[in-house]
Amino acid sequence: MESYITHSNFFEGNEPEKLAETYGTPLYVYNERILRERMHEVSQVITKYPYTANYSVKANTNIHILKLALEEGLNCDAMSPGEVTLLLKAGFPKERIFFVPNNVAETELAFAIEQGIMTSLDSLAQLELYGETHRSLSDAGKAAAGSERCAVRINPGVGAGHCDKVVTAGKKTKFGIQEADIPEIFKLADKYNLRIAGINQHIGSLFMDPQPYLDAVTNLLRIAEQFKNLEFIDFGGGYGIPYHKLDDEKPFPMESFKQRLEPILDDFVAKYGSAPLFKSEPGRFCVAEGSVILGRFHAVKQNSGVTYCGTDIGMNVLVRPSMYDSWHDIEVLRGGVPCNRAAGLTEQTVTGNICESGDILAKARMLPAIQRGDLACVLDTGAYGYSMCSPYNSRPRPAEVLIRKDGSVQVIRRRETLDDILALM
Which of 76, 163, 286, 355 does the annotation list as catalytic? Predict the structure, then answer.
């Protein structure tokens, strides 16, 4: 593909150079149309049985993005009281929020119990702490009605993902309760008068082959047969997106995945005798492709035969390449239009402006010859982009703008200032 932003009409008629001049760089730019399309797609994964897609909020917590998810009919997963609070602020009713923490203090579980937020417990120790906390709050008349209902996270024994750091199930992970410990779940539930309303899992993130996910679904449904009268079964998320767009990488095969998933569900429902609510937990799939980062190239130099092209997109703005060695396509814009890749590419390393040797956005990447003043357009930054930003090197976090379907531009988060950073000290 010569240019994804041109092919997708990402900027909806807006000029990237004008956006950069108006709002400054680095700048997160979101496209409402693309975000809604992806959210709608995951809402249709299962149509034969009761189903909801729970957007995994940690991928992108901007309240304006959360409101889009609400409008598209998604429920949400939250990993902290802070994320729960953001969802409530965005307008989500409590019954559409699923609290899925791990290794949290009694105060966080108490928050969920008092709020009446369905909570998944990640270990036997956390289940016991939930039971103790619920009993104490019930005795004090502070537990919300129905808060004796909870869920447990199962480790299915298999994981998948683009690197070890995002594999969240299997033998070497901190997440979930092993199948062998299920009898202890029932003992703790009886001890504290809890009702196990649901089970959930998450095997990892960014897989393009659906088979490991389908295998994990099959396994979780087998495990589910040990639980009576489940209200819901949550299969997790992790569906990948094509980060190598300029090399024409194919997207996750959603339609064939759905066709292969349905008979697995059919078999389970026939055995179980009823169809509980099925859930998935997509995060990246919903938002990654709906954002790009615009940054400016400020320096080009040669060091020991390597061409370094320095931008204002440091690891404080996008940490994924440094943290996970993740790939993000980069389009070079000159005069507001993508440089012609067919005219020739040269090997260059794109770096940020942070005082770290690992502050590398793209290493030895084949790109059009970059000049100082060019714009960098980094693709697929909507997931784990701004949500993992930091003020490292005391650099304020960037602004975020949303391009609406009619082409209008809305600031959905102003640029942080040094005064904002100093206000916390």
Answer: 355
